[in-house]
Amino acid sequence: MKLAENTFKRAIASDKPQVGLWISLCSNYAAEAVAPAGFDWVLLDMEHSPNEIPVVLSQLQAMQQGSSVAIVRPPWNEPVIVKRLLDLGAPGLLFPMVQSVQEAKQAVAATRYPPRGIRGVSVGQRGNKFGRVSDYFERVEEETAVLVQLETRHALTQAREIAELDGVDGVFFGPADIAADFGYLGQPAHPEVWDAIRQAADVVRAAGKPVGTLMSDAQKAIELLNEGFAFVACGSDLNLLARGADNLLATVKDGVK
Asked: Catalytic residue among 48, 116, 154, 243, which?
């Protein structure tokens, strides 16, 4: 048995736009409901969702009902959590709040086995089909997407150096936190914020790495993908549920005489 190709990693490396969905509901059932929708990638969130390892495992299993590549965002750039997620078979990780080249190096090292990194070795785990994948140790590095999230003004100034690191496969911009750092808390669409993000994105692309972000407005997501952003999540399961419920109730109440 051979290790599966990471189609998401291949696609963003070749600038093929990848449309994503944020998975914030900590439920394998909800994950299974969206799996057949056909998003190129989904993000299983552990940073801003009350999500834990066993639930992530069930979500990864549920996502096998579709073709989406499931990227996991750990709660922090912490090697023990990273090790466990990779052993679960996560095909990619989005590291939050990366502020420096050193922190980006730490993220990459956590995904690499010695001597190239610090990932602990388990001979049989879900990621290698419990020891059945014959080329796992030889190819897991090339098939694991390592994405780093820049979320502050300082991080934006480090964009080129971070992008140039070997092992960083993509740079993701977090508009909400960047906006807060600019003094625009709760205004992630502020023009000054996006001027800064676009400038940093140009720098990253010039360094040969793809860029991505999360955008809750579908038209804005389309705009960014057409601008050259390689991977953009265009909404979340949580917001779909919440706004869908709001809109349904408002529609019915408005129609009752």
From this structure: 48
- Residue 77 belongs to some domain of the structure: yes
Quick: pLDDT tens for 58-85. Answer: 999 999 999 999 999 999 999 999 999 9
Residue 85 to residues 57, 72, 132, 167, 175, Cα–Cα distance (Å): 8, 8, 18, 18, 25
* Residue 138 backbone dihedrals phi, psi, to 5 degrees: -75, -30
User: d(Cα 235, Cα 27) in Å, to the nearest integer?
Assistant: 17
Helical H runs in the chain?
A: 7-13, 28-34, 53-63, 79-87, 101-110, 136-139, 153-157, 159-163, 175-181, 191-206, 218-227, 237-255
> In this structure, are residues 87 and 116 in contact, taking their beta carbons and an 8 Å threshold?
no
The reply to whether 179 falls in a domain is yes
**Active-site residue flag, 48:** yes
Residue 1 lies in a domain: no
152-184 pLDDT, tens digit per residue, is: 999 999 999 999 999 999 999 999 999 999 999
Residue pLDDT, tens place only, 79-124: 999 999 999 999 999 999 999 999 999 999 999 999 999 999 999 9
* Segments forming the whole domain that contains residue 70: 7-255
In a domain, 214, yes or no: yes
Question: What pTM does this model have?
Answer: 0.97
